């Protein structure tokens, strides 16, 4: 039963990753057919992220009332609906409307499952969990590249929407598995729901929120604008750019997969700093005055490898830094701050790129990387430098 539940959690995170990289890989063609400027992707992502913020802030209470399994199931169905909606959209307004369920589905499942795994499993399993998100994120650009070559961009959305629907029906048919599997969350007693005021009074939590905001700001900018950057700044054609953008997700996924086996030994905090150092190396590679596809391949893959441990390590350390009683609420708000970064920072890059040049991407990334690492160091200091203890690490 334990293996089956873990498999369902991993499958749910594949479904979470599938929509995340789809818009960025399709946009170089989508914006032309819809008849809007390239920077308008920023408005779509703002709506998606704003909806995700709403569902992230609601996930704590929704999970308390309905449980992790039902919240996950409903979220996957909702994103499937949104993807099919995108596939039939012929205007920017239609895309904007379907962007709302697109985001609502992502936020609740992200917060609920991250807290579930952070409390019940080791940092190794947390890293593996996010590597399965990467599998979903890798699949989408490849599917879209295939669809652009042989069909059109709506077909790419239909294929991914169908995959989401299949995953939703698998989750629906296995709801009993969650009830038969014991969870440490059930043993945590809360006198009352934890409010934002309670959370903000917690020492060090502001550094966590700002650090997570900064990380998601540069990660989401890479995910959404890598294809456009490769077309506008490096001269690649849209199909090649869509395929090349998957290199970031390949690096991200492989880094989380293989990094999982050293995370328990290294600890969440060292992994965050190690990841930041590798991202910095990737930026240096991206700035080298060498115009070859091989260097682009190496840079994007290294960029993914560096990002790999940062997100899951931030999440997994939250119950240990602030207590398991507060972790569900803090992770919900943590995800909300993350999506604020997703909402505001990629569109800002799009506007800056339009006004100046899309070649500023490496400099944009390094600014938020520096802020993220600074906040992580302050967080470690504020929480006393405690090392997370892996209780019954699985």
Can you tell me about this structure?
This protein has 394 residues and is mainly alpha-helical. It has one domain: MFS general substrate transporter like domains (Growth Hormone, Chain: A). The chain is 82% helix and 0% strand. The chain contains 16 helices and no strands. It has helices at residues 2-17, 22-34, 41-66, 68-87, 92-120, 123-150, 153-173, 175-180, 196-200, 205-232, 238-266, 268-287, 293-307, 310-322, 324-355, 361-382. Helix 2 (22-34) crosses helix 10 (205-232) and helix 6 (123-150) packs antiparallel against helix 11. It is globular and about 50 Å long. The two termini are 14 Å apart. The relative contact order is 0.16. The model is unreliable at 185-189 and 388-394 (pLDDT under 50).
Observed structural traits:
mainly alpha; 0% strand; 16 helices; 394 residues; disordered C terminus; Growth Hormone, Chain: A
The count of strands amounts to: 0
Secondary-structure element order, as H and E? HHHHHHHHHHHHHHHH
CATH class: Mainly Alpha
Q: Describe the largest sheet.
A: none
Count of discrete domains: 1
Per CATH, the architecture is Up-down Bundle
Proportion of strand residues: under 5%
CATH homologous superfamily identity? MFS general substrate transporter like domains
Through-space gap between termini: 14 Å
List the uncertain runs: 185-189, 388-394
**Portion of residues in helices?**
over 70%
Provide the structure class.
mainly alpha
* 3D shape: globular
CATH topology: Growth Hormone, Chain: A
Give the oligomeric state of the chains in this entry, treating copies of one chain as homo and distinct chains as hetero. single chain
Radius of gyration: 20 Å
How many alpha or pi helices? 16
Whole-number mean pLDDT: 81
């Amino acid at each position: 039963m334990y293996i089956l539940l873990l498999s369902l959690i991993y499958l749910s995170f594949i479904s979470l990753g599938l929509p995340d990289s789809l818009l960025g890989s399709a946009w170089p063609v989508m914006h032309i057919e819809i008849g809007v400027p390239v920077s308008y992707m920023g408005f779509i992502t703002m709506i998606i992220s704003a909806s995700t913020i709403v569902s992230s802030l609601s996930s704590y209470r929704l999970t308390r009332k309905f449980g992790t399994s039902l919240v996950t199931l409903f979220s996957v169905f909702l994103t499937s609906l949104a993807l099919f909606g995108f596939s039939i959209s012929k205007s920017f307004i239609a895309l904007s409307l379907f962007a709302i369920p697109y985001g609502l589905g992502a936020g609740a499942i992200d917060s609920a499952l991250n807290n579930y795994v952070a409390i019940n499993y080791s940092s190794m399993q947390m890293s593996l969990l996010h590597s399965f998100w990467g599998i979903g994120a890798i699949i989408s650009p490849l599917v879209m590249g295939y669809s652009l070559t042989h069909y059109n961009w709506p077909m790419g959305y239909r294929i991914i929407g169908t995959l989401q629907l299949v995953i939703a029906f698998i989750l629906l048919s296995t709801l009993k598995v969650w009830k038969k599997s014991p969870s440490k969350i059930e043993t945590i007693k809360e006198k009352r729901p934890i409010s934002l005021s309670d959370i903000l009074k917690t020492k060090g939590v502001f550094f966590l929120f700002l650090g997570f905001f900064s990380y998601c700001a540069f990660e989401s900018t890479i995910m959404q604008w890598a294809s456009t950057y490769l077309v506008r700044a490096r001269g690649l054609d849209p199909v090649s750019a869509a395929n090349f953008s998957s290199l970031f997700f390949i690096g991200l996924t492989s880094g989380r997969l293989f990094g999982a086996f050293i995370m328990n030994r290294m600890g969440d905090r060292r992994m965050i700093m190690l990841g930041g150092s590798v991202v910095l190396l990737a930026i240096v590679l991206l700035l080298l005055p060498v115009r070859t596809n091989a260097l682009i391949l190496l840079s994007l893959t290294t960029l993914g490898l560096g990002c790999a441990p940062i997100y899951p390590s931030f999440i997994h350390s939250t119950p240990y830094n602030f207590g398991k009683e507060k972790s569900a609420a803090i992770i919900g708000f943590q995800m909300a701050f993350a999506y604020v970064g997703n909402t505001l920072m990629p569109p800002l890059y799009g506007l800056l790129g339009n006004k100046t040049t899309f070649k500023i991407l490496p400099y944009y990334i390094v600014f938020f990387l520096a802020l993220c690492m600074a906040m992580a160091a302050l967080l470690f200091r504020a929480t006393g430098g405690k090392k997370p203890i892996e209780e019954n690490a699985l």
